[in-house]
Amino acid sequence: MNTILNRCLEEVDGRFANMVARRRMLHRFPELSYHEEETAKLVYDQLVSLQIEARAKVGGNGVVGTIYGGRPGPTVALRADMDALPIQDEKQCDYASQRPGVMHACGHDGHTAVLLEVAAILQQYRQHLNGNVRLIFQHAEEIAPGGAKPMIEAGALDGVDAVYGIHLWTPLPVGVVATRPGPMMAASDEFNIVIEGKGGHGGLPHETVDSVLVGAELTVSLQSIVSRSVNPVDPAVVSVGMFHAGTGFNVIAEQASLTGTVRTFSEATRQLIYSRLQELATHTAAKHGAKATLNYKWGYPVVVNDAEEAGEALRVAEALFGSAMVQEAQLIMVAEDFAYYLQHVPGTFLFVGAGNEEKGIIYPHHHPRFDLDEESLRTAAKLLIALAFRRLNGTI
Question: CA 109, CA 214: separation in Å to the nearest integer?
């Protein structure tokens, strides 16, 4: 393994306690999507203190830094997200969130802490890099339209030749690394269907058009889209998450509202489901004398890893951690706006295992008691450094 790379990996071990401390500090003071002012300032100030060229307010609350290598070469981008979720932290620990109703329940605090330490290490050894490293600290990953698109539009990827991102992932045991060539994470869209009927007395249904009845029938009918309209070898999900209607037990509701999500792995299927939603909503409502209006919010596209970059990333992970700790990721219906970076630049997104049953770290992402095994920070930092070295210096 490259001698300089070895030194960098040793630096990760030496800085591990600092990385954990920073992650816990960020965990105590989370900020919601589009409100990451304090986090962004901390990141910007840290980059400046390392004498890294930095830009703040990139596409919103994003921060971008650039480390210039000692020799000419390509530019590789490393991305971390910074935002938290509107969830009350229910953990009993000294680093639980101090902000009511806001929590880092997805690991973005860890992503930010990791990339800051990676930045410090690569800046220290920049004279050995054959090219440059772009550091992308992204705001607003959790809420579409997200921070990736405006950051790209503001120049975050200008001059970049490859891009890598990691997600600390509790469904995988701590230390395991997983990715796959091609599609890995689904496109995610949101729909809302408003049904307009005719309200009235619960005892006189013949004088009404029952929006609840229409909504109930439509909820069941929507399940036929995946089971009967989509090719069964093409993964897709249509889920109704909210059904709101009514004001009283003896009142037939004039209006009902269904809200849900669509997850797909191909654009053709995405368009098909949109069309079928419109058709089913319109026809089901009309059958009962009601009217249905579909509001469709196009969300993040499919995360599609570059085949060559994903293959190289798996080989790098095996060289670092051994083949037993590396696996090809399964397709997953969770979405990520890292997809936008991959539409512009070849690269790959990787999961780094952060779960540990022995430590009680068993709760899923977006759960009030979510936590991660902080040893995963060490794995993630070493992986990002090695990926950068492989792309810039050609070997590890």
Answer: 44
Burial class (CB in 10 A: 0-12, 13-18, 19+), 338: buried
Q: Domain 3-184+303-393 is in which class?
A: alpha beta
**What is the Rg, in whole angstroms, of the alpha carbon atoms belonging to the chain?**
24
Please identify which of the residues 117, 141, 254, 337 carries the catalytic annotation.
141
Give exposure, 70-95, as e/b (b: 16+ Cβ within 10 Å).
Answer: eeebebbbbbbbbbbbebebebeeeb
83 is catalytic: yes
Parts of the chain belonging to CATH 3.40.630.10: 3-184+303-393
User: Is 296 in a helix, a strand, or coil?
Assistant: strand
Residue 336 CB partners (closer than 8 Å, separation 6+): 141, 167, 185, 300, 303, 349
Among the listed residues 83, 109, 142, 254, the single catalytic one is 83
192-209, pLDDT tens digit by residue?
999 999 999 999 999 999
Q: Which of 194, 134, 174 is nearest to 158 (CA)?
A: 134
Question: What one-character DSSP code corresponds to residue 357?
Answer: G
228, two tokens = 């009967």
pLDDT in tens, 48-61: 999 999 999 999 99
**141 included as an active-site residue:** yes
Range list for CATH 3.30.70.360 in the chain: 187-297
What one-character DSSP code corresponds to residue 115?
H
Q: Which residues have CB under 8 Å from 323's CB, separation 6+?
A: none
Fold for 187-297, please state it. Answer: Alpha-Beta Plaits (3.30.70)
In the predicted structure, residue 1 carries a pLDDT above the cut 80: no
